[in-house]
């Protein structure tokens, strides 16, 4: 066995409480190097005749990424404590892994082993229970619908009359959203994520002027209250965007520093390098990226911290919002986010906290900061598979297996999965206007682990390049909408709601074979759902690795039922084709 490839740390995604009495333990080994893994575990204080008393539990392989195999096991320590190690076998070779290294025989002293000191129920990671069933819809308010001409900004353009630019306005507002809530409800949406709605200079509103005021072009606070109430009537949650990493150029405290320099009482609200402040290509104060209009806030400053926590509380207490999406969350200090979580959860315990982070996010997902992050690694792999056709189905499965095993299982269930946003090209454009590929992408989005999100207009075939092209006005003329694509997405949402296995209620694993087809199953003790996706132009055939002769199989997209005639069912897929099949068996042993 290759010892250097055997990896376990007694923390994070390798060992964690998954419920108030259960530990989930994982081990990583070189692919196909280890044939059997057994967990050695017991209470460190249970001894007899001078020896530690332990038991052994077989570990199961939970996946492979082409380089590593992943093993896991669930145990219920009777006294909430556990010392543990691993017995590994490969042919005739046997190794024992403990915290103090490798041994040929299991040490008799519990002090040699990894230690999970105590399972505290309050430390179990828990995202709000409603999130795993949520279907999100991201709205860029300026471009969704103009319901009130009376609050249009100066120079507003007729709806959709021009291509979007960095600085043009079309008058989208809250009234427009309210007018189309029935459309969203009929589509199956249960959560709206709004990009910023607070008073700001730009059309995107990520340059806040006043965090406690609604931008006048969107309406009033009363309108927002009505919008939230109308959403809640339709069982739709509301999540607002918090830009706490930086303010806007016209934020009054920053204007005070620009005017008074070192004498400003607000100078420590920001990160000036020298005075007077100067913008340009490389400002002499810290900013988001190097954008002079977005000065970075000093969230370690008590005044700034108190102000922002007041903001976070205000919109929950006064408007009953259900979530905060946190912009540029990875550039804000961890302690601020810990206090943020404590503050908002005291007010509304089931509030959803979503961080914008594009890379591995384990440091923010230990239960003391966020409930989830925007799952851009999923986005990247899915687009590489189908839109760019730069990876194979097997490579997609390998990449996603590694990604899934980078987080605790209960963390990944709440991941915010998206295939496009205000920061990316439209999914139809990414797919070179090929609707079949878009349908395939949405089939995977709505059947994968995590909480799916649609970017407004993608469901009816809006196109557009990177910002600002991806921020077109929503098309409300049904004659100009792709109703076939809309119906496909609506059907997928309905399936996800009707079948709880598609909404993270069961187990997940890839069942790849030698073909390029992506194949995975979601299952519990009673049912298995198989998702098959062909990311290539050419037709493909997949043989399911289960004894299905005589078993009733249901095509979940067509409701067709049939009894498999052969022992191993062969499924034919067209180019960019897909199937979602279910049958009453788990085959999970």
TrEMBL record:
Q: Which residues form the signal peptide?
A: none
Q: What UniProt keywords apply to this chain's record, in alphabetical order?
A: Glycosidase, Hydrolase
Domain Glycosyl hydrolase family 13 catalytic: where? 138-496
Family annotation (Pfam families): Alpha-amylase (PF00128), Alpha-amylase_N (PF02903), Malt_amylase_C (PF16657)
Spell out the SMART domains in the cross-references. Aamy
Which family does the record claim for this protein? Answer: Belongs to the glycosyl hydrolase 13 family.
**Which protein is depicted?**
Alpha-glycosidase
Q: What species is this protein from?
A: Cytobacillus pseudoceanisediminis
State the taxonomy lineage. Bacteria, Bacillati, Bacillota, Bacilli, Bacillales
